[in-house]
Amino acid sequence: NTVFLNGEFMPAEQAKISPMDRGFLFGDGVYEVVPSYNGKYIGFAPHLARMFVGLDTIEINLGYSESELRDICDRLIAENSNDENGGNLGVYIQVSRGVEAKRYHAYTNTGKPTLFIHTFAIAPPPSVDAPKAYRVNMTQDLRWQRCDIKTTSLLGNVMHFQQGYANGFDETILFDHNDFVTEASSSNVFIVKDGVIKTPKLDNHKLAGITRLMLLDILRKHSDFKVEETDISRSELLAADEVWLTSATKQVGAVTEVAGTLINNGKIGPVWPQVQGLFSQYMF
Ligand code: PDD
């Protein structure tokens, strides 16, 4: 498996970084996951645009353009596609602030950012004929107040995800202190109620998911569904006709249980296949 680290392509086993890297010491960096199926990316441009906004926000000057990054990703996909992964690859791009002389909270940006890109096998795009049903946990969102930054500091997300995983759940949906849905530990959340598709409106408590963005755009352009970006309370979630998760690797995932409460009697509802079908047709 070939990876890219700081200007060079190499076998994964040869990739080494310093323990003084601020990505390791502080989780001081950002990342992206871009899905690719048979060499075709889903949302490469918006994923990279979000990464550049994140880099600006935390004052890291990467020194690579989007098209340079795309060439690197293209080469990794070409080298790493094989029969085993069937050409279904997630491209993971991580930029950390790099090595500085001492461990000190303030940064000087005297080092070069560390750029690491690797690919990993992902599931093929969801099929509406053989869908996966997600069973999810729910809990209070105890992460920090800048969840709009796609940072590699993921301990909060990891703890929330693990709490569900250890109890046999596939994901964990999170609520703010007013009991409104923020997102899930690695996905955005949608519900359907009386034919209206709803998702929480964006703020600093959730990531502006690219799958969410593309899905909203597709629904507004290519369907007659009514779509709302609005607050969703815990009781609205539990009483929803359908609940979905979106993320780069899931696309639209249908939820059939939220922490013991069955959604649509535990069966994937009728809107999901239409919407996943539209996503498959129009994803860019
Ligand atoms: N996770 N919210 C959080 C906290 C996430 O980590 C993710 C993505 C999303 C969905 O964003 P997008 O549609 O851009 O993938 C929402 C990625 C896939 C991960 O950490 O592996």
TrEMBL record:
Enzyme Commission number: 4.1.3.38
Annotated function: Involved in the biosynthesis of p-aminobenzoate (PABA), a precursor of tetrahydrofolate. Converts 4-amino-4-deoxychorismate into 4-aminobenzoate (PABA) and pyruvate.
Reaction it catalyzes: 4-amino-4-deoxychorismate = 4-aminobenzoate + pyruvate + H(+)
Needed cofactors: pyridoxal 5'-phosphate
Pfam (any one): Aminotran_4
Keyword Transferase: yes
GO molecular function, one term: 4-amino-4-deoxychorismate lyase activity
Organism, as annotated: Psychrosphaera ytuae
Cellular-component GO terms for this entry: cytosol
GO biological process, one term: amino acid biosynthetic process
Database matches in CDD domains: D-AAT_like
Keywords: Aminotransferase, Folate biosynthesis, Pyridoxal phosphate, Transferase
Identification of the protein by name: Aminodeoxychorismate lyase
Family (UniProt): Belongs to the class-IV pyridoxal-phosphate-dependent aminotransferase family.
Pathway: Cofactor biosynthesis; tetrahydrofolate biosynthesis; 4-aminobenzoate from chorismate: step 2/2
